[in-house]
Amino acid sequence: MRRKDVVIAISLSLLVLAMSIIIGAEQFTPIASAVIRGLGESYLMYSYNPWHANMTVFSLNVVTAIIWDYRGLDTFYETCVLLASVVALLAVLRGYGEVARLGAQGLSDVVKAATKLVIPLIAVYSVATALHGQLTPGGGFQGGAIASVAIALAIAVYSLDSVYRKGLSVSRLVVLRVLGLACMLCIAVALALVGALLGVKAYVFQNMAKEDSPIGMPKTLLDTPMAGAVLLYNTFELVIAFSGLSTALIMLSLREEELRKAIEVGEAYE
After folding, report:
1. CB of 250 closer than 8 Å to CB of 151
2. Distance between CA atoms of 233 and 67, rounded to whole angstroms?
3. What is the dihedral of CA 161, 167, 172, 177, to 10 degrees?
4. What residues of the chain score a pLDDT lower than 70?
5. Do 107 and 157 contact (CB within 8 A), yes or no?
6. What is the pLDDT of residue 25?
7. Residue (of 47, 53, 45) closest to 215 by Cα position
């Protein structure tokens, strides 16, 4: 047995032992305090509270209410950071070209047939996770991450050529991501613009009507709580996360011919 295999085996054994000790020692540790801080208690009380319409988000999912209402501006900047990381990846591999028809056949027909059944299920689950983020655990980023699994599966099973043939090029995915971010920004400033036109007070990233601002986003959709702009934010976050993560997966799956061209162009810049 090689030394490398021995080191890996010992490392995994120590990891399992450490996790077992942590789990086993939990019963001997002090019980955490049941007292909730004032801010957390406020979130739990007002995330969905129709009796306080000026303070609630009408979101049954407290985490989603915090992310897209109470601290929506922070979440928007986090989304911009993911876009910046994709731009950085494109900058590092600038000049690469998508080379089609390299002769990759993918895996066996049995695996391909099974994948054809799995990918639609992944797509449906990702959309459901995003659109029900204000009701159940989930949200736009989670839905986009799930949807990008379909791209990773298609690359592994069918080859990168098949992804290109379906029209999922990096340039199109980047445009899709920018459009999603622009739509999200439009929603963020929509009520502020409406308030300016009507001569009433409104805020950027405002969702529901407040005590000093009478305008707000719709509370329900078909008798189902939509939490105002939260449903829209989750929808566009699905698009943004899917396009961004799929771009990264395609870039990290480039073949030798495509990487060679990117390296040659990068050396020309240097």
Report:
1. yes
2. 10
3. -100
4. 1, 23, 25-36, 94-104, 255-270
5. yes
6. 64
7. 53
